[in-house]
Amino acid sequence: MLKKDIKKTVRKAYGKIAEKNTGCGCGGGCCPDTKELTNSIGYSKKELNSIPDNANLELGCGNPVALAELKEGEIVLDLGSGAGIDCFLAAKKVGPKGKVIGIDMTPEMIRKAENNAKKAGMLNTEFKLGDIENLPVDDNSINVIISNCVINLSPDKEKVFQEIHRVLKPGGKVTISDMALLKQLPVNIEKNIKAYVGCVSGAILIDKYKAIMNSAGFKRVKITPKKYTFISDNTNDPFCRFLFDNLPKGKSIYDYVTSIYVDGYK
Q1: What residues form DSSP beta bridges with 104?
Q2: Whether residue 45 has pLDDT greater than 90
Q3: How many Cα atoms are found within 13 Å in the side-chain-facing hemisphere of 110?
Q4: For 99-121, what is each residue's pLDDT tens digit?
Q5: Residue 242 and residue 48 in contact, taking contact as beta carbons nearer than 8 Å
Q6: For the chain, first and last CA: distance in Å?
């Protein structure tokens, strides 16, 4: 499938998620419920209670804000900001003198995030429609970039990290939660577009992820795998059934796919 077709399919799928106010990019019933999922990937009850309910669409695979060590007055950019969960948490960290900009390619997500910001009175947030491969942001203008389970969905990850490097200020930091591969997926899963939308087949090997960042100019790149149960044993769900049926006998999806935390500096 061509890159433009992948992006079109992903945009359509996540637009539907925004409209239905439900998460799990695979569109199936194999993800845990919202409370179980958000607790398992690192969000505290205090954090979740501090943001609008509709900001959490259970689409993440970690909590990058918790690791970003944000400071008051900083300018933060969130790639693939969705309904705004990480933007709102970051906005509380940087305070009124700081600013958080969310970028998302899905108009439905931008509208939802803007409505959530208005309801919550989050005046130091801004949401822009745009692609993470071509950021609508000035050079050398951002202190910290965060992203949560989004870069795996891009068909041009090299361009994403070139753009991240471009917009960061010298000394700026990127803190990412994402999905990556421990080893190559079986071909049937690798080529399945629903597995791509579900943050599985768009993932790349950890070593390749690090090599792309190094090539883009990042220093002190650190990638830490983190166990994350994003697919349950619900064998009645068609998407789960597809994954299980296309794995070698005795293998689990977790033998191939893992959540990662990524740090790097310009």
Answers
A1: 129
A2: no
A3: 15
A4: 999 999 999 999 999 999 999 99
A5: no
A6: 33
- In DSSP notation, 134-201 reads B-SS-TT-EEEEEEES-GGG-S-HHHHHHHHHHHEEEEEEEEEEEEEESSPPPHHHHT-HHHHHTTST
User: Is the Cα torsion angle 42, 44, 49, 51 positive or negative in sign?
Assistant: negative
Give me the CATH number covering residue 190: 3.40.50.150
Q: Dig out the tokens for 244 from the structure.
A: 């299980």
Distances (CA, A) of 232 to 9, 29, 35, 121, 140: 24, 9, 14, 36, 42
- From residue 35, give the alpha-carbon distance in Å to each of 16, 108, 150: 21, 23, 21
Tell me the two tokens of residue 15: 């637009």
Domain that holds residue 225: 3-265
Number of domains, the chain? 1
Alpha-carbon dihedral sign for residues 31, 16, 39, 61: positive
At 206, list the tokens: 């950890």
The predicted-structure confidence for 176-193, as pLDDT tens digits, reads as follows 999 999 999 999 999 998
Closest CA to 174 of 218, 130, 136: 218
d(CA 196, CA 90) in angstroms, rounded, equals 28
Q: How far is CA 49 from CA 25, 72, 89, in A?
A: 23, 21, 11
Nearest to 220 by CA among 263, 191, 189, 186: 263
